[in-house]
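Dear Dr. H.,

I hope your travels went smoothly. While you were away I took the liberty of generating a structure for the chain from your last submission, since the lab meeting agenda had it listed for discussion. I wanted you to have the full record in hand beforehand rather than looking at slides cold. The sequence, exactly as received, is reproduced here:
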Amino acid sequence: MQGWLRRGSAAGASTSRRDTSAGASRRGGRAKKKTKTPAREDVLKELESVRKEVEEQRRRRGLALKYDLPAAPAPHHGGPSGSISPLPGGPGKPPKSALDLLSKEELYAQVAEVRRQLSTRLSDTNRYVRHLEVDLLKRDEEIASHHDKLGAIEEGFGHVLRTTRELREGVLAQLDRGGDSGEGRALVDDRLRILESCVEDLAKALADESESLSLSRKKPISISWLGSAQDVKLMGSFDGWTNGEQLSPDHDYAGGGIAEFSGEVLLRPGVYEVKFLVDGRWQLMPEWPTSGSDPVSSNNILVVE
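The corresponding predicted structure, in token form, is as follows:
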């Protein structure tokens, strides 16, 4: 009896130990699961921080490119231990951008330079717009003048038509009377002289108007410059010395040698003052006539017939 009790108590103790061990194992598993959750949150926070840093770097790099600022130093990969960090600058902060490396004075100088360039471009654009406005006003005046001349020609044709009708009616009336009197012949001769004079005036007016229209029409003028340069433009009074006309080099020109720069300008017949802007410097064409003897203040003369 006592042996059976001892075996029972031993079995109970063994069962209790197994239950205790299983409970401890389950609690340990729950504890492990609880420890995994904070680690995952830390990783997500770190990834979010990396994303924000990368976006900030991209924004600053875009500002540096927009305002033509010096580039940021190349990022250093890997920390002291040789491990690769998720950040371009290593385990610490990311490298400073070009805006961070500039001092206030340098940044102000960069902003002032950008403002000066924008102001220069705006001034050139405004001058070109004013030139276009003046040219448009001249065109309007020419159109109004042509309209008045065409009105006068139309009136002359009306007079010719009326004279022709009177002449026809006079001839028909004379034929109806059946006579060939000297008075009728004189009337016909008078009407014919008037008709001839009107036709001559109309022909002269049409010739003048045709010449005037040809003078108001622009013609393509070929321009060429021979020399060693990288950029050549033709500037002149044809557009108020604003934009000019860009000349293109030969197709096989690689720079550094002699090449022919050519282009085509649409100009009306007239006299223009022009000058070549070669790599930012003003130059005259020696073969062309000039407006003066001083090569600095004088310009070339371009005559368009």
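Two observations you may find useful: The first helix runs from residue 2 to 66. The chain has four domains: 29-102, 103-133, 145-216, 219-304.

With kind regards,
E. W.
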